[in-house]
Amino acid sequence: MPRIGAEAQIRIVAPAAAVNRERVEQGAAVLAASGFQVTYGRHLFDVWHPLGFAGTDHDRAQDLMEALLDPAVAVVLAARGGYGAMRIMDQIDWESLRNAERKIVVGFSDITALHLGLAKLGWPTIHGPNAESDWENPVTRASFLDVLNRRPARLSPTRLKPLGAPQALTGPWRGGNLTLIASLMGTPFQVDCRETVLYVEEVHEAPYRIERMLTQLRLTGVLKEARGLVVGDIQLPPGESKEVAEAIFGEAAETLGIPAWCGFPSGHSEPMWSLPLGWDLAVDREGWVSWDG
């Protein structure tokens, strides 16, 4: 990944749900204070549809394509998740992007759709904060800047917890929000787990729904192709058991004979740790995550 200079341009676009203007501008101000040039997609603050998307599907896709093809833009930052990114996947000109200069695309939650689509082209991305995230949190901000510039060697603030016998893992990570991963199965953008580590995070889903999505991935055959599974931030509904959720992930990995770890803090909690997707990472037997090589 190329190092991104402090004066690089970050373009904020909204591929999914309508945004909170005040929160986006707060995030943009923090990034500008860090030295970045921050620009906005033309339709960033639009609102359209009874479901509240950030502009029409066409306009959201157009803003994204303009950002991805603009030679002056170094980083494309999603404003927020919510719902809506899936709706524009068939309106993105993927062939134009195939030979385009690669940008660093950043976001999480519904932005998983873009992570998976760009992974098909070999583009690395960052599972990290959206523009509406709390950029004033020093950990969130520092983690983003560290990953953007590939420092330090260790990526995880604490050791991961093994779900079964601890086994080292190496290879590129791929994934994001489990619901989006499951929802894109059977489409041209379904996750490709071959020779990769699958990363998943989730919010407000009961353990039985998590188990159902994992079973779907297992029955399609894609999960067995993964080198391993890493579970990130899992936010359960009130009254649901974290231990039960971890046991479900552990059982899925054991059934497939792949190692699994849990506890990487990248998802719907604050602070938000940035996670590079598509780059080679390593989990050692003690559970530390670092750049591999």
Describe what you observe in this structure.
- With 293 residues, the chain is of the alpha/beta class.
- The protein folds into two domains: 9-148, Murein tetrapeptidase LD-carboxypeptidase, N-terminal domain (Rossmann fold); 161-291, 3-Layer(bba) Sandwich (Glucose Oxidase, domain 1).
- Helix content is 29%, strand content 21%.
- It is built from eight helices and 13 strands.
- Strand 9, helix 8 and strand 10 (260-262) form a beta-alpha-beta unit.
- The chain is globular and about 50 Å long.
Keywords:
single chain; 293 residues; alpha/beta; Rossmann fold; Glucose Oxidase, domain 1; 2 domains; seven-stranded mixed sheet; six-stranded mixed sheet; 13 strands; globular; carboxypeptidase activity; S66_fam; Peptidase_S66C; protease; carboxypeptidase
Strand order in the sheet with the most strands: 6-10-9-8-7-12-13
Distance separating the two termini: 12 Å
In the CATH scheme, what's the topology name of the largest domain?
Answer: Rossmann fold
Percent in helix: 25-40%
Mean pLDDT, rounded to whole units?
96
Structural class by sheet pairing and helices: alpha/beta
**For the CA atoms, what is the radius of gyration?**
18 Å
Count of spatially separate domains? 2
Strand content: 15-25%
Count helical runs. Answer: 8
Q: In one word, what is the shape? A: globular
Organism: Sulfobacillus harzensis
Domain LD-carboxypeptidase N-terminal: 10-128
GO molecular function: carboxypeptidase activity; serine-type peptidase activity
Keywords: Carboxypeptidase, Hydrolase, Protease, Serine protease
